[in-house]
Each structure stands twice: as structure tokens, then as C-alpha cells.
Amino acid sequence: MKVTTKLAQLRANYGNISYEEISESTGIDRQQLRELENGEANAMKRSVRS
Q1: CA-CA distance, 29 to 46, in Å (whole number)?
Q2: Is 7 in contact with 35 (CB distance < 8 Å)?
Q3: What percentage of the chain exceeds 70 in pLDDT?
Q4: H-type helices in 1-50, by residue range?
Q5: What is the pTM of this model?
Q6: On the CB side of 27, how many CA atoms lie within 13 Å of its CA?
Q7: What are phi and psi of 38, to 5 degrees?
Q8: How far apart are CA 5 and CA 9, in angstroms?
Q9: Is the confidence at residue 3, as pLDDT, over 60?
Q10: Nearest to residue 30, comparing CAs of 44, 9, 13?
């Protein structure tokens, strides 16, 4: 199973959890999450939060 499919499935299982909520708990940028879910991501970079 592709990661993009799994992300969409997980979001649906958790009541369509927002990219913001996932971003806050993982440190992955919201835009990168959207691209990953839609199969548009070329590479993932971890955001550094202060």
C-alpha cells in the first residue's frame, strides 16, 4: 500500500484530522502533508520548529 493511500485512510479513520494537527505532532509541514497525500511529493523535509 502506498504511503499516500495510508495517510488519507488514517485521516478518515480519525475524523478527517487536519493537516495542522498532524503537522503539530510530527513536525512535517502542512503543505508537504497535502502533497504526500495527493501523490505529489518528491522529497520530504522535516520542518524545524522553535
Answers
A1: 7
A2: no
A3: 72
A4: 3-13, 19-26, 30-37
A5: 0.67
A6: 6
A7: -90, 5
A8: 6
A9: yes
A10: 44
Enumerate residues 6+ apart whose C-beta is below 8 A from 31. Answer: none
Q: Can you tell me whether residue 47 is helix, strand or coil?
A: coil
Residues in the chain: 50
**pLDDT tens digits along 13-34:** 989 899 999 999 889 889 888 8
Give the C-alpha separation, 45 to 15, whole Å: 26
Cell triple for 17: 484530522
3-state secondary structure at position 46: strand
Grid coordinates in use for 22? 498532524
Residue that is written with C-alpha cell 488519507 in the block:
8
Contact 46, 28 (CB under 8 A): yes
